[in-house]
Amino acid sequence: MQTVESIKALRQMRSDWRNNNKKVGFVPTMGNLHDGHLELVKEASRQCDVVIASIFVNPLQFGQNEDLATYPRTLDEDKQKLIAHGTDALFLPTVEEMYPRGPEQQTFVEVPGISSIICGASRPGHFRGVATVVCKLFNMVQPDIALFGQKDYQQLQVIRLMTQDLCIDTSIEGVPTQRAPDGLALSSRNGYLNETQRSTAPKLYAEMQALAAKIRQGESDYRRLAAESVQYLAAHGFKPDYIEVRNAHTLLPATGDDSQLVILAAAYLGKTRLIDNLTVEL
Ligand code: PAF
User: In DSSP terms, which residues pair with 277 in a beta bridge?
Assistant: First the structure.
């Protein structure tokens, strides 16, 4: 696996691939790779001639009181995992390479509307940081395909809209969430959980499945159902941020006319914020 740290070296590599007509698959990450990330790499290699991953803990997408400083950094293990999965190249930029004038002076990309609801309301500026870094990475890597986990459902919708609005010639693929055997969605932040919290954590997805079952059985007072799930989680050790039943595409509150729904949830266990989602087709 070739590791490049500068945009210049990345562009050279990209132009060699272009000259050799290689189809390029891109997996952007913040590192601390788990099976969810590796599934993205596997899918990229199924569809493409070359696979490039990036590892960059993007300061622009962390709020002031969030975990930027403590975000797990496990570069050596990450490299081994990427190599074992046949990744061709790793882009590993520094903050200075990505934001030479500093993150505050960076021109930004903001997808209006969707960026300020649900997770965006709880984490102001987060999706602007994501859209900005992903747009920059796309301009650098110029991938044919870019792959993202469906676990970050709202992020995936933001990236799809950004790519469409800015006419970026990359197709965006969402890859299904990978779960632990007990149902907990894999996430780098799961590593923050202590033993008790880890044993409580699967209740989040279990409650979302229970909510989905009620919807499939015909219950349609989504606000009441979501409020009941919030109460359930609060009574079982979580500090819920939200549970929402939304239109799966617009992420606006679901109405009786919608047939493709998504249940979106965020809840804290101690200081760790877990998110998950579940789509429901009626
Ligand atoms: O999902 C992530 O790990 C990050 O938000 C991403 C897409 C790599 C942008 O920093």
Answer: 264
Ligand 1 neighbourhood includes 26 CB (under 6 angstroms): no
Ligand 1 lined by 54 (C-beta under 6 Å): no
Condensed to tens digits (0 to 9), the pLDDT of residues 137-163 reads 999 999 999 999 999 999 999 999 999
Pairing of strands 239-247, 260-269: antiparallel
Mark whether 126 is an active-site residue. no
Cα–Cα distance measured from residue 94 to residue 57, given in angstroms and rounded to the nearest whole number: 9
User: pLDDT band for position 178 (50/70/90)?
Assistant: very high
Q: How far apart are CA 13 and CA 69, in angstroms?
A: 31
pLDDT digits (tens, 9 = 90+) for 39-72: 999 999 999 999 999 999 999 999 999 999 999 9
- What confidence tier does 264 reach under pLDDT thresholds 50, 70, 90? very high
Ligand 1: nearest atom to the Cα of 188: 3
**Ligand 1 in contact with 133 (CB < 6 A)?**
yes
CA dihedral 225, 231, 235, 241 (to 10 degrees): 110
The residue among 162, 207, 140 whose CA lies nearest residue 148 is 162
Domains of the chain: 2-175 (3.40.50.620), 188-281 (3.30.1300.10)
Q: Is 225 in the pocket of ligand 1 (CB under 6 A)?
A: no
Question: Which of the listed residues 130, 135, 189 should we mutate to test ligand 1's pocket, taking the one with most ligand atoms within 8 A of CB?
Answer: 130
75-110 burial, b at 16+ Cβ within 10 Å, e below that, comes to: eeebbebbeebebbbbbbbeeebbbeeebeebeebe
Q: Give CA–CA dist 223/245, Å, rounded.
A: 8
